[in-house]
Amino acid sequence: MTSAVYLEHNLDSLEHLPIELLRNFTLMRDLDSRARELMQNIDRQASVYLSNVRSMGSDKRKDQMDKIQEQFNKAKEYGDDKVQLAIQTYELVDKHIRRLDSDLARFETEIHDKAASNTRSQEEAGSQKRGRKKIKDKDVKKKAGASSEDESKAPRKKAKKGGAKAAAGAKSAAKGAGAGSAGNTGVDSGAAGIAHPSDVLDMPVDPNEPTYCLCHQVSYGEMIGCDNPDCPVEWFHFPCVELTTKPKGKWFCPKCSADRKKK
């Protein structure tokens, strides 16, 4: 129930109250006026009675006393009626006051309930918002973790274009030298393939640069990643694993291949 409805309800109940109060007060004033007139008559008759009591006979005195007593009884009735009207008037006003207090109490209860409901709704909305934010933060963290994991798994390549060309030339020279050495000394072509380009090995290396492959050197040239997620090395130079092109399908490094064959 809204405040306007409460107000309209109380105004409707109070509509006839002034008329009823005016009627009761008018009757009380009329009864009071009659009672005063009777008391004045009683005073006059009592004065006459007291002044003539010695000369009156017993019958006349008794009649006079009966008249005075009758007027007293009548004045008492007026007083009782006036008291009843006053009680009715008080109860009438008190009834409206109690109704108003009851409506006020209900109205305050509804306001408190509505405020509590709004507070609960805001808290639920806030908790849902915080929950969505936590989920969003978790997703962002997962994406950031996956991105950082990919970045950490992929080797950093510091060689610039000129360095790459020099590395490629050095690799060709190394291959030629390896072939000649194999022909002269009898060392197989696999051992020659592991040889690193001298230009690459002579390049200044950052001590913070991560190392890879079986040779424990920095990233250079073409490299391939082992498909075993638990591989301790992960990335390998093509020459070190005797590759010239990227193989199709999954590829495992020599150590992981040997471990897989043992299993």
UniProtKB/TrEMBL annotation:
SMART domains attached to this UniProt entry: ING, PHD
Protein known as: Inhibitor of growth protein
Keyword Nucleus on entry: yes
Region (Disordered), start-end ranges: 111-184
Keywords (A to Z) from UniProt: Chromatin regulator, Metal-binding, Nucleus, Zinc, Zinc-finger
UniProt domain PHD-type: residue ranges: 210-259
Entries under InterPro entries matching the protein: ING_fam, ING_N_histone-binding, Zinc_finger_PHD-type_CS, Znf_FYVE_PHD, Znf_PHD, Znf_PHD-finger, Znf_RING/FYVE/PHD
Basic and acidic residues bias: start-end ranges: 111-127
Site residues (Histone H3K4me3 binding), renumbered to this chain: 212, 223, 227, 235
Residues given in the record as Zn(2+) 1 binding sites: 213, 215, 237, 240
Summary of subunit composition and partner proteins: Component of an histone acetyltransferase complex. Interacts with H3K4me3 and to a lesser extent with H3K4me2.
Function noted in UniProt: Component of an histone acetyltransferase complex.
Listed PROSITE patterns: ZF_PHD_1, ZF_PHD_2
MF-aspect GO terms: zinc ion binding
Bias-annotated ranges (Low complexity): 164-176
Chain residues that bind Zn(2+) 2: 226, 231, 253, 256
Compartments reported by the entry: Nucleus
GO CC term, one of those recorded: nucleus
Domain notes: The PHD-type zinc finger mediates the binding to H3K4me3.
CDD domains: ING_ING4_5, PHD_ING5
Keyword Zinc-finger: yes
GO biological process, one term: chromatin organization
Family membership noted in the UniProt record: Belongs to the ING family.
